[in-house]
Amino acid sequence: MNTIAVSAEDNPAGHPLPRLLGGQSSWQGRFEAMASPCEILADGVTREYAERALAYAAKEAWRLEQKFSRYVSGNPVDRINRSRGEPVTVDEEMALMLDYAAQCHDLSDGRFDITSGVLRRAWRFDGSDNLPEHEHTSALLKLVGWNRLSWQGPQLTLPAGMEIDFGGIGKEYAVDRVLLGLKRSLPEGGSVLVNFGGDLACSGPRTNGKAWIVGMEDHQKLSDSSETLSLHGGALATSGDSRRYLLKNGVRYSHILDPHTGWPVPDAPHSVTVAAPTCTLAGMLATFAMLQGAEAERFLEQQDVQFWVQR
């Protein structure tokens, strides 16, 4: 194992240095970003490529984390959330994300809403039985609603008290961005897979033509993967409540919140995993399915995609 040097400028949050394992032509690079374990797997490439690929993946993931996380003081999202109703001009990449958020809102009939993050002020999904008061969630609903803000690129006007949160789409976008960058320099015959906290995408099958074998977590046994999937190309993304929920009087309350009510979606699956051409699309469909609650399977069947639902 060896660590890959990166500058403090490329690693402003001070994450541990990326680590490279492997030998000959098969490599595994590991690092941390977006509160998740991240890795790249590379086949049929030299150590030099593997080192460059790992450094690039970590730097790009950290860049996106610094830009789109709601937890980074002074970043573009923080400036928008502190704008107090004043218009903010955003760059091309932020505009792309806002356009995508608008599309997700429309396609989900308003169930997917990047302004609903303020509801976390009422909810603490720590496995306890502490439910918020309805008065608290009802008051917060006055600060929720994509239609309450004004977005006409490149200007966004967010009413005072409201916030945006890209947590539902940021990690999947990062996977696709990193994979695209790695493919540009991927040598002929090489193959690479990008995995950020279980959301992943690959350039194609492994060098020997076989599939990448991916473990899928069982919500009833978090320490182990109960099923493996074979991935020859495309992406997988998962949405679920295995670690974030409340339990009271035998009723489990998922962290998937309905922005119309301020409360967890009833009868939502424990997890939904979707296979799609890109991680962004897979993540969107997985989240949409969770928001459908009891109708998750029916929704996914209508999308003509492969999926796995745990209840």
From TrEMBL:
Domain of life the protein comes from: Bacteria
Alphabetized InterPro entries for the sequence: ApbE, ApbE-like_sf
Reactions performed catalytically: L-threonyl-[protein] + FAD = FMN-L-threonyl-[protein] + AMP + H(+)
Record's protein name: FAD:protein FMN transferase
Classification via Pfam families: ApbE
Keyword entries, A-Z: FAD, Flavoprotein, Magnesium, Metal-binding, Transferase
Family: Belongs to the ApbE family.
GO molecular function terms listed in the Swiss-Prot or TrEMBL record: transferase activity
Source species of the chain: Marinobacter aromaticivorans
E.C. designation(s): 2.7.1.180
Cofactor(s) the protein needs: Mg(2+)
